[in-house]
Specification:
The chain has 333 residues and is an alpha+beta fold. 41% of the residues lie in helices and 16% in strands. Helix 6 runs antiparallel to helix 7. Belongs to the protein kinase superfamily.
């Protein structure tokens, strides 16, 4: 993990001038005006600490880092939080989007696992917008690490992959499919622990006291990680889409790129992959980045027929993942 730590380094707390400038730039990027009421934001910072950094800004809001210190209990509170503000830009958060954010909040709130990002709160910040208060990961996201490193070493990729599969297994045991696994949604602590984040596309595939798995019919996620059955007009098992996406994440870590842009016959690289499978060959990119046991498992995870893909528990019991030894920080979170 040493090379990864050198790549990410430690984030320096923003000084007041730069923070104020970034706040102003964000406000100006919202055509509808400033998306947060100061008194509502004050309530958030009172509970979760002063804002010290703007981590990222997007079309639907911003992610901030706050630092909470002090308190009456001992040891005193000293913790950073990620504050994700949901905003629609031109106007207050549209009703459907707001309802979706509120509906997905319990998923992150009630999950407790070392490889799942913890969500603490969902608070109003004015103008119909919301702020989710979450666990802060100072190591950034896996996508940034891949870009900075170009490609990860085998032992790095294997460790992160095993952590990812552990998180996916927990989700599936809780009857939840993530549906949007990709490096951008995999956050890293400064100790090398991977945590699955962003449950905006997640869905529950089994209702309590029911044995039946509810099939899905909606295509979700980012194009390079979407499994081929999602392009068909037939219901599918949402768990198997997570298995497919996890395999693409591993390839991205080792190769520094995705094997194709979309898993459809319109994509030349995917057409080549289909032909390789038809004649009984392993994909050339998978062969380049893997050994005997990992190559076979990745090949099965990327089966065109979703029913032939292994489940997360089967992955963890495989010889490849059984041989991967993760550090204590990765095991405990």
């Amino acid at each position: 993990m040493l090379r990864w730590l050198r790549c990410t380094g430690g984030r320096e707390c923003s000084n007041g001038v730069r923070l104020l400038r970034e706040w102003k730039q964000w406000a100006e990027s919202c055509p509808g005006g400033w998306p947060v009421e100061s008194d509502k934001l004050a309530m958030v910072t009172q509970k979760y600490g002063q804002i010290e950094e703007i981590i990222g800004i997007g079309s639907h809001g911003a992610v901030l880092m706050s630092h909470k210190t002090g308190g009456t209990c001992k040891p005193q509170h000293n913790r950073c939080y990620a504050l994700k503000i949901f905003s629609q830009g031109q106007e207050p958060m549209q009703y459907d989007h707001r309802r979706r954010v509120i509906a997905k909040f319990p998923i992150g709130y009630f999950l407790h696992h070392p490889h799942i990002i913890k969500t603490f709160d969902l608070l109003p910040v004015g103008y119909g917008n919301l702020c989710a208060c979450m666990e802060y990961c100072s190591g950034g996201d896996l996508h940034s690490l891949i870009v900075a490193s170009r490609q990860l070493l085998p032992e790095e990729s294997d460790c992160f992959f095993k952590q990812l599969v552990c998180g996916v297994l927990y989700l599936h045991k809780m009857h939840i499919a993530h549906r949007d696994l990709k490096p951008e949604n995999l956050l890293l602590t400064d100790r090398g622990c991977l945590k699955i984040s962003d449950f905006g596309n997640a869905e529950c595939f089994r209702i309590p006291r029911e044995d039946r798995v509810h099939m899905s019919s909606r295509r979700r996620g980012s194009a390079p990680y979407i499994s081929p059955e999602q392009y068909l007009e037939e219901p599918f098992d949402p768990r198997k889409t997570d298995i497919w996406a996890a395999a693409i994440v591993y390839i991205a870590m080792r190769a520094g790129r995705n094997p194709w842009n979309t898993a459809t016959d319109r994509d030349e690289c995917f057409r080549d992959y289909l032909e390789e499978r038809r004649v009984g060959k392993y994909n050339f990119l998978i062969r380049e980045i893997s050994h005997e046991h990992s190559c076979e498992l990745l090949h099965s995870m990327l089966s065109i027929d979703a029913a032939h893909r292994p489940g997360a528990s089967e992955l963890l019991s495989s010889q490849w993942l059984q041989e991967i030894r993760c550090c204590q920080a990765a095991r405990l979170g």
